Structures are given as structure tokens and as C-alpha cells.
């Protein structure tokens, strides 16, 4: 099976950690004997990028025979559907459905319009995958597949906290809150909210806030094993990969109620799902500090191992091909 993958997020020399989850997913599909070519374009930079992506896709489709065009992020589906020869599946991840947040912390008018068009595209493609149920509920299309992106359980393994801190040079006696984001200035992530929540603990707990930003993807597991808790303060998410990675490392999580975190954290202790109030988040962090232990999260993500998630996506691919064969037989 040969797949052409279009995406608006992928690593670049200046953003090597971008969409690391998608890179791992492509690797898992390749190991499952799916031949994949990737076209990456930056949708927000310039309208000309869409034109170049369309030309690139057209040239690629002429050079090889593809079975599936898979668009990751709704913006990429707009390009993918400009051709009618190859079936199209789109995976929605979050902001492509929820909208784009501006620097003022509010959803922008342009972002709302783009997400509206992105959602409409679900009616024009052959199949739809969403990474969490709440994204599917926002689409005009009623039939879709819920497949969260997976986690590399070999890479995100449990390392003793003391050993991880020695490697990073962190003090052993500090309660370390980890904030992980590719870009700390991204208004969706609300780093300032995390800072305020931690600030409220400084008089009563020996706390420190560490950031995992701009790191190489292979360095993230060590940070998670060295920290005491992951703090996620996003205004919205799809199915946050960082939460699944923290679970795999048995790192407790305190977060806002976004995406599918309630499902992911069901039965996981210690940890807390809080409102966007700094005091509530600070209290969640205090509870983790008082517990003094790691979480039981790793067992929760066993079903999200990369090979298992890849197999579910391949099932969608085969279903699309079978539908195409039936349609051709009828015509």
C-alpha cells in the first residue's frame, strides 16, 4: 500500500521538535509495510504555500501510483481534495476544529473562519479520523473514526527520578513542575497561567518550574522522569500527546479540562483536572506534592503503543480501498 501524506506540521531545521508525534506515526506505518511519502507545507505563512503544495501534490501523484492521500490537520485536506483520483482521509488534531487563538488569548475571527472551512471539508473527503471524540462532535459529518495518536513506549520508559536528575544536574530536594510546549509563546498553551499557579506555591513548597521547550524529541523522556509533575494549562487540545507521554513515564499530571484528558486520566493517581483558575491549579500541584509518589499511568497507555495505533489507521485505509473497489464494480 502506498500513501501520500500531506501535513501543515512537521519538523524543520528551525523547529526540529515540531509534530514529533506525527514523525513517530509515519515510522510506525512504514514498519507495518505502508510506503509513505510526506509533503509538508506551512499553511499560515502565505497563500502561495497552498499553491506550491498543490503543485507538489499534483507532481507527486503523476510520478507514482498512490492508494490513499492522507491529510493531517484540516488545512491540509483543502489541498488533498483538489484532486479526485485518489481517496482522501483527513485526521483532525485540535486547533483545526476548535479555532486559532490570537496573542490576546481569544479565538481570532480569521481562526474561526479557517476552522469553519476546515470542518466543512469533513463532508468532502472519503473518511475522517479525529484524535478525540469531542472533535468529532464538532464536525458536520456524523460518521468518523476516533483514533488518538500513539506513544513510543520504548522511548518513554520509566527511569528513576534520582538518576534522571543527576543526568540533568537538577537538585534532588526540589519539587519540580514541568511545563512542556514547543513554543512557550503559543497563546493556546498559556504559559503565564502555569507561572502564576507555581508562584502561588513558592511560600509553602520548595517548588521550581522547569520548561521542556525547543528540545530534541529524544530528550523529552529524561525531563519527564526527572520532574515531579507535568502541568498542562492549555485553552484547548485535541488529544494532547504530552499527557500520554507523561503517563508512559508514570509522571503525575495536573491539567485543565481539555481534549480527552478525562478519559486518559481516569483511574490515574495522583493527579488533578482543574479549572483555569491559578489557585485551583496550585491546589492540584499541592496535592501531588503531598502524595510524594509517581503515578500509575503507564498501564493506561498500553493500548496506545505506536504499532497498535498504526494498525487501526491501516484498517481505515483498507476500508477505503474496499469501498473504492465496490464502487468501481458497480459502475
Q: What does the model show?
A:
There is one protein chain. The chain has 331 residues and is α/β, with parallel strands linked by helices. It is 40% helix and 16% strand. It contains 13 helices and eleven strands. The strands form two sheets. It has a six-stranded parallel β-sheet, with helices on both faces. Strands 8-7-9-10-11 form a five-stranded parallel β-sheet, sandwiched between helices. Helix 1 (20-31) crosses helix 13. The longest helix is centred in the last third of the chain and has 25 residues, at 306-330. The chain is globular. The model has no long low-confidence stretch (mean pLDDT 95). Residues 23-155 form the Glycosyltransferase subfamily 4-like N-terminal domain.
- Our count of helices gives 13
Count of discrete domains: 2
Compute the gyration radius: what is it?
21 Å
Distance between the termini: 24 Å
Largest sheet data: 6 strands, parallel
How are helices and strands ordered from N to C?
EHEHEHEHHEHEHEHEHEHEHEHH
Low-confidence runs of at least 5 consecutive residues: none
| CATH class assignment of the largest domain | Alpha Beta
Q: Beta-strand percentage?
A: 15-25%
Provide key terms for this protein.
331 residues, alpha/beta, Rossmann fold, 2 domains, 6-stranded parallel beta sheet, 13 helices, Glycosyltransferase subfamily 4-like N-terminal domain-containing protein, Glyco_trans_4-like_N, glycosyltransferase activity
